Amino acid sequence: MAKSSQSLSDSDRRLVAAWGADCAERVLWIFEAERPADDRPRAAIARTRAYARGELDTAEEIRQRFAGGSAASEAKSLAAAAAARAAGQAAAICHMGAHALGAAAYAAKAIGLSAPDDPEAIPNEIRWQLKQLTAGMRTALLTLPPIGQDRSGPLGPGLLASGQLGVIIRDLQHGLDTELD
């Protein structure tokens, strides 16, 4: 079986996992304001960071990722659900590196939903996310196929490639090629 172009090497997945965790953690407050007793997204982010540091192996993290259930389905607001999904996407990076862009996209969506009267909320979040990338992270993410063009992973035609998430990921991928001030 051929490896998906969306997988990334183990070392690159660990590298972008730190960024995915940063993106998800930045919006965690949105979920926790609504469901303060639900620690599943925070635990997913902590596991993502442990994976990034090499403290968890891929198989162990994949098993734990599914044990917590979906906090997003229990959120009342769309913003809180998007924040929980950002954490879930971050936890999925151990399996496939392309989920890093999913974590960032859901985080930006959560910010936009939490500030509906601010048309700059999502673009500002995308700029912040791109500024957090190290050169190594940027290089790893640049190896991923453009969204919607490769069916072998989360960036293929489907949820991440459609609607607002697709627009955000396209903007992120475009920004990877651009040096930020």
Structure description:
Helix content is 61%, strand content 0%. With 181 residues, the protein is an all-alpha fold. The chain has one domain (10-176). The protein is globular. The termini are far apart. The mean pLDDT is 91.
Low-confidence segments: none
Instruction: Classify the secondary structure makeup into a structural class.
Output: mainly alpha
| Residue fraction in strands | under 5%
The share of residues in helices is 55-70%
The overall pLDDT, averaged over residues, is 91
What is the end-to-end distance? 42 Å
> How many strand elements?
0
Largest sheet: none
How would you describe the shape?
Answer: globular
What is the succession of H and E elements?
HHHHHHHHH
Count of separate DSSP helical elements? 9
Rounded radius of gyration (Å):
15 Å
Multimeric state = single chain
Q: State the domain count.
A: 1
Task: Please render the helix and strand layout as text.
Blueprint: H1 10-26, H2 28-34, H3 40-52, H4 58-67, H5 78-91, H6 99-114, H7 121-131, H8 135-142, H9 163-176
Helix pairs in contact: 1-3, 1-5, 1-6, 1-8, 2-5, 3-5, 5-6, 6-7, 6-9, 7-9
Features:
mainly alpha; 181 residues
Provide a compact summary of the structure:
This protein is an all-alpha fold. It has 9 helices and no strands.
